[in-house]
Amino acid sequence: MHRNPQAAEGLIIFLNGTSSSGKSSIARELVAVLGEPCFHMPVDAFHAMRSTPEMPPDQLNVTLKRTWMGFHRAVAGMAAARNTVVVDQGVPPQADDTHRVRTHAPMRSGFSA
Question: Does residue 78 surpass a pLDDT of 90?
Answer without folding.
Answer: yes
